[in-house]
Design a protein that fits this description.
alpha+beta
Amino acid sequence: MSKQRFVEFYLSAMMKAATGGRVSKVTYQYTKAGKRLPAKEYVTINFEDQSCVPVSVTDCDLLGIALEVVKAVKGQ
């Protein structure tokens, strides 16, 4: 399963349900690497009050992505 599919379909629905709708959606972004710059992966957590929190998930597997997102939401 791709990271984008996991984050935007499964994790987004889980976080929305687990927070009672406080999290409106979760999206995945991948920035390609250049010759001297490494690739970067981010998950953006969008809240119902229109705020958003970016979370770096570079080099994380699916379980690691879920863990980082849960930690970020708990900290809000």
